[in-house]
Amino acid sequence: MNSLARPYPLTPALSPKGRGSAFLWFAAALALSLVLSTTAADAEAKVELWDGQRALADVAALLKFTPRSLDTAGHQLTIDYIKAELAKIHVDPVATQRWVFEDDSGRAVAMTNIVARLDPENPRRVILATHYDSIVRAYRDPKNPNAPMPGANNSASGVALLLETARVLSLSQKPPFGVDLIFFDGEEGPKSLGAGDPAWHALGSPYFAAHLKDYYPQGKPEKAVVFDMVCDKDLALKAEPFSLANAATEVRKYWSLGAKITPSSFPAATTPYPISDDHNALAEAGIPSFLVIDFDYEPYFNTSADTIDKCSAQSLETVGRTTLQYLYSP
Exposed, middle or buried by CB within 10 Å (0-12, 13-18, 19+), for 61? Predict the structure, then answer.
């Protein structure tokens, strides 16, 4: 999906911050950890395994479950799909973090975060995250604001990105970090309207952040990357101000690697405002975290036109291969 990046009411913690203009360029040949016998160059060869068409097939599969918002049949079908795909590639262990959220009206909603851990014995951890819930209706649609919102870009794309990354990692030499793939629930808020809810707040990532010790009893992950809205055909990923305020070095590393793969997709620019998403809760829990998102998705954003024909296998590949390079870089 997109983990709805949203420019509406910002909390003081999300006020715009400045950033430096120079990108840091890193060497790719540093030796990996003792658990890794290969070189960074060897690992880079696996980047070609990241298949945008296969990821796009995941987007198509997820759209069959629309709507995928809280308390719908499609929501549970999405959970089942993610777990089934992870089982095919023997990602183990896969945990489900379950709780019940009660909204202002007293409605109780069952919530589920999905956590898949690669190389769980490695004490060094990195989080790759997205959200899998979608908004309940296409509230910005000029013709039918009550229509179901397909959410090809805004939610399905992030799920597809993580699933394909997991497939490639399962076939590759271990990176220096153990990787935790987290599929957050409730990013679109208690009303499942994302930016269409003036009182929006994420549900799954704050819950996970409040229970970090359940997964990291010995220490926090070293960093986290959150993905949202990453399949746009005209992909232009701009650095996000809150991310730069909390993880500037990691942002610049990721962008420098991406610019080597597809320069046009990684412009040296920032979004004009901070974007609220699942990276906020992780950053506020003390994990250097940043958001990878192309929020310029007009006129399709949160409309019934957010369909798979607006998505690009090449865009997914660009982000997926950049992410692999990032995981194996010093």
Answer: middle
- Is 0.70 topped by the overall pTM? yes
Burial 187-224 (b: 16+ CB within 10 A, else e): bbbbbbbbbbbeebebbbbbbbbeebeebeeeebbebb
Tell me the CA end-to-end span of the chain in Å, nearest whole number: 29
Q: What is the CATH number of the domain that holds 253?
A: 3.40.630.10
Asked, for residue 299, whether it belongs to a domain, the answer is: yes
Strand arrangement, sheet containing 223-228 = 94-102, 108-118, 178-184, 125-131, 223-228, 289-293
Per-residue pLDDT of 99-121, as tens digits, reads 999 988 888 999 999 999 999 99
Question: Is-cis flag, bond preceding 241, omega within 30?
Answer: no
Number of domain units in the chain = 1
